[in-house]
Amino acid sequence: MVNDRGKIKWTSLMLPEHVEMLQHMGREIGKAKPPIMDEQQLEELEQKVRDIEVGKTKVRMLYRKGQQVENAFGIVTGLMQSERYLLLDTKDSLYPIRIPFHHIIDISLH
User: Fold this and answer.
1) What InterPro entries is this protein classified in (predicted)?
2) Phi and psi at residue 9, in whole multiples of 5°?
3) Which residues contact 70 (CB under 8 A, 6 or more apart)?
C-alpha cells in the first residue's frame, strides 16, 4: 500500500481550472522584469564596464537572459563598445557568453 498523502490525496479534488492556474503561476515565478535603474546606477555600471581590463579582470555578473536572471563568474575576454556587448568566459561554457550591455543588472570586479 502506498503511503503518499501529498499529490495523490489532492489530485481528485482539483478542478481543471485550478490546475491550469497553478501551472501558469509556476511559469510566471521564474520570469524577471528588468529593474528600473536611475541615472546614477547606470553611470556606476558604465564606469565598472570601463574599468574592466580585457583578458585580466575577473567579474561576477548578474544579467538578464530572456525572462530569467542569470548569475555568472568569469573573465571578460572581449569588450565591444561599438556593438555594446561583452564576452564573458566561464568555466561552465565551452564558448564565451555574449552579454549585451543593456541586459547587465550588476557587475562586481574581483
Assistant:
1) YolD
2) -65, -40
3) 62, 63, 64
Instruction: Give the architecture-level CATH label for domain 39-109.
Output: Roll (2.30)
What is the per-residue pLDDT across 68-110, written as a single tens digit (0 to 9) for each? 888 899 998 888 888 888 899 998 888 999 999 888 888 888 7
Q: Is 15 helix (H, G, I), strand (E, B) or coil?
A: coil
DSSP assignment of 43-76 equals: HHHHHHHHHPPTTT-EEEEEEEETTEEEEEEEEE
CA 26, CA 47: separation in Å to the nearest integer? Answer: 37
Question: How far is Cα 28 from Cα 89, in angstroms, rounded to an integer?
Answer: 30
Domain spans, the chain? 39-109
